[in-house]
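Ticket 4471: requesting a sanity check on a complex prediction with flavin mononucleotide. Repro inputs:
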Amino acid sequence: MADLSVEFAGLELMNPFMLASAPPAASGEMIQRAFERGWAGAVTKTIALEPASDVQPRLARLAMGRRTIGLENIELITQRDLEVWVRDIEEIKRHYPDHNLFASLMAAVVEEEWHSLIKQVEEAGVDGLELNFGCPHGMPEKGMGSVQGQDPTIAGEITRWAKEVATVPVMVKLTPNVTDIVQIGKACEEAGADAVSAINTVSVLIGVDLDCLEPLPSVGGTSAFGGYSGPAVKPIGLRCVAQLAKGTSLPVSGIGGIGRWQDAAEYILVGASTVQVCTAVMFRGYKIVEKMKEGLSAYMDEKGFESVAKMRGCMLPKITAHEELDFDHNVVASVDEALCIKCRLCYTACMDGGWQAIEMESRQVYPRVMIEKCDGCSLCLQVCPVEGCISLVPLEAGQHS
Ligand SMILES: Cc1cc2nc3c(=O)[nH]c(=O)nc-3n(C[C@H](O)[C@H](O)[C@H](O)COP(=O)(O)O)c2cc1C
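Returned C-alpha cells:
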C-alpha cells in the first residue's frame, strides 16, 4: 500500500488531508470529531484578539441541476473568544497529540497584536500557525485579511513579526485576488515563512434574485461581495498552487474545490504537500476523508508512486509557457457513429462557435467531420454528451489542403 504520510514544514502528518480554516473547524469539539474520522490535521477557524459577529444568512450557492458548483459566503472570522479557543486547543492536543493542529490567526498591521496572538495559541499547544492574509470580505475594511495579502511589503512585514516570536512552523494563507500570487509568496518566503497555503476564497457576487430584486446572499434585501469556494474554484486553486510550487521553494498546502480523491491527487501532482478542505465537508460531512484516503492510496499504487513526496509536483515540468507548446501537434475530430445519438450539439457548436467543419443535414444522419476545415479546437468534444463518442485523432500529413 502506498504511504500516505507526509512531512510538511518540519511536521509529520499521517496523511495529507486537513480541515481548512472554516465552519468545519469552528470549535474544539468539531475538530476532535474530524480527527476521529481520519483527518490528519486541521486549521482552526480564524482566531483574532476580538471575535466577530456575523450577518444572517451568509451563504448562497450556484447550482447546475442539483449539483452545487460553487458557494459564496459573507461570513467573518470566529465568533468565539480567544480564551475559549485557548481552552479548546489545549483539549484537542490532550486528546490528539499525534494530529496536527494549526491556529489560523488574523490581526491588524500591528506587531504587538500578532505577537500577543501567537504567544497565546502557542502556549496552548498548537503545532503550527496559519496567518490569514486572504479573507476578501468584511475584514479588509478593517485593515485585515486580503488587504494584507495583496501587498507584498505588508505580507512580508507581518510574516517577519510572526517569525520573531513563533517557535512552531508559520504558514501563510494567500488570496487568489491578486495580479501575481508568486510575488506575495516570495515576499513571505524572504521574510522566513515555513510554508504557504492557497487559496482563500475568490471575491464574487454570486447572483441576483430576479423575483425579489435582491442581490445574493440577501441580508434583509442588501448584500456585499463575498468569497467563492467549492468545485468552481478548483482550477484557480490548481493554477495558484502550481505557480507557488514553481516560483518559490516553500512547501504548499493546496486548497479550493477539493471533495474527491481525484481533486487531492491533482493538487499533489501540481506541487501541494498537503490539502485542505472546507466546502465539501460543509455539504457532505467529515466522513468524506475515508473515501479520499482509500482512493488516493489506490491511485498511487496503480501509478507506482510509493509516497506522496514522490508524487508531489510531477506535473510541474509539463506546465510550460504557452510559447513553448508544440504548434506542430495537429489533430482533427472524429465521431464514433456507434455511440452517436445524433443530438446535433456538435454540429451547432461547430457552426456558430467553431470552424463550420461538421456537416449534418438533419437529425436522421450522423455528423460528418470535414477534415480540411477542422481546426482541432475540440469544441465538439466539449459539448458532446456521450463519453468517448468524439475523439481527437492525429492529423496525417497532407490531410489539410
Ligand atoms: C463559510 C466559510 C467560512 C470561511 N471562513 C474562513 C476563515 O475563517 N478563515 C480562513 O482562512 N478561511 C475561511 N474560509 C475559506 C476556506 O478555508 C477555504 O480557503 C475556501 O473555502 C476554499 O476551499 P473549499 O473550496 O474547500 O471550500 C471560509 C470558507 C467558507 C465557505
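Notes from triage: The mean pLDDT is 97. Leaving this open until the requester confirms.
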